[in-house]
Write a structure and sequence with these properties.
Layout (H helix, E strand, L loop, with lengths): L10 H13 L4 E2 L10 E7 L7 H6 L7 E7 L18 H15 L8 E7 L2 H15 L2 H4 L20 H5 L16 H16 L2
Antiparallel strand pairs: 1-4, 2-3, 2-4
Helix pairs in contact: 1-4
Length: 203
C-alpha cells in the first residue's frame, strides 16, 4: 500500500500544529489577564451554572477541553494586509481578551469567575490559519450559533442592524441600547443552545 509522505509544512498540518500548541498553554482566569505584548489567537472556556451551557460546564469540569468562544487579535494594519512582520510591539491580543472580560462582567447572568482563557502569541501570517483550525475543530457555540460576543461599540451615530443573539441572551453592555431589540426571545436562543450542544457532543 502506497502512503503519502507526511509534509509538516502542508497547510492543514501547520494549522493543526498551531492549534495543538495553543491547547498546551496554561489556562488563565479571564478576569486576571494583564497587559502583555503580542498578537495571536485565544480560546475562552466556561464552567459555570448558566442553564444554557450545562453541557459545556460538564465537559470542562475536569479539565478545559471545550471552548465557548475562539478568536484572534491581529496587529494594527494586519487586518488590511499592511503588516506581515512579526507580531511584536503591540498589545492587540491582551487588549482583545480584556475587552471580552469587560463584556462578561457587564452581563449580570454570567460570572467572570466561571471563565478561563488560553492564548498563543503567533506571527501575524499564521494567526488566521490557527483561528480557523480551532473553530473548525470545536465549533464553539458563541462562534457557530450565538453571534455578537465579539462585537465592538460602533460609536455614536454608527449603529446599524439589531441587537445580537448574544446581547439578547446576556444583556448588560451599555452601548447595545443603541440598537433596536430583536424579535427573538431569550428563551428561544437558550433552547437553541441546548439543542446545539446536545447534538454536537451527543449527550
Amino acid at each position: 500500500m502506497t502512503q503519502t509522505p507526511y509534509n509538516p509544512l502542508e497547510q492543514g498540518n501547520l494549522a493543526h500544529s498551531i492549534m495543538l500548541r495553543m491547547e498546551e498553554t496554561e489556562p488563565t482566569p479571564l478576569g486576571s489577564v494583564k497587559k502583555f505584548q503580542g498578537a495571536g489567537l485565544y480560546a475562552i472556556y466556561y464552567s459555570g451554572d448558566h442553564p444554557a451551557y450545562e453541557v459545556i460546564s460538564a465537559l470542562n469540569s475536569d479539565r478545559w477541553t471545550t471552548p465557548i468562544y475562539v478568536g484572534k487579535a491581529v496587529p494594527s494594519g494586519g487586518r488590511r494586509g499592511l503588516d506581515v512582520t512579526a507580531s511584536h510591539g503591540t498589545e492587540a491580543l491582551s487588549k482583545r481578551i480584556r475587552e471580552h472580560a469587560k463584556s462578561i462582567i457587564a452581563s449580570p447572568d454570567l460570572s467572570i469567575d466561571a471563565f478561563v482563557v488560553r492564548w498563543l502569541v503567533v506571527e501575524d501570517i499564521w494567526i488566521a490559519l490557527g483561528e480557523s483550525a480551532m473553530i473548525r475543530a470545536h465549533r464553539p457555540v458563541w462562534n457557530a450559533l450565538v453571534d455578537g460576543f465579539g462585537n465592538h461599540d460602533p460609536g455614536k451615530g454608527r449603529a446599524n442592524g439589531i441587537q445580537s443573539r448574544w446581547d439578547t441572551l446576556h444583556p448588560g453592555r451599555t452601548w447595545v441600547g443603541n440598537f433596536p431589540p430583536r424579535a427573538e426571545a431569550p428563551t428561544v436562543i437558550e433552547q437553541d443552545i441546548r439543542e446545539y450542544l446536545r447534538a454536537r457532543y451527543q449527550v
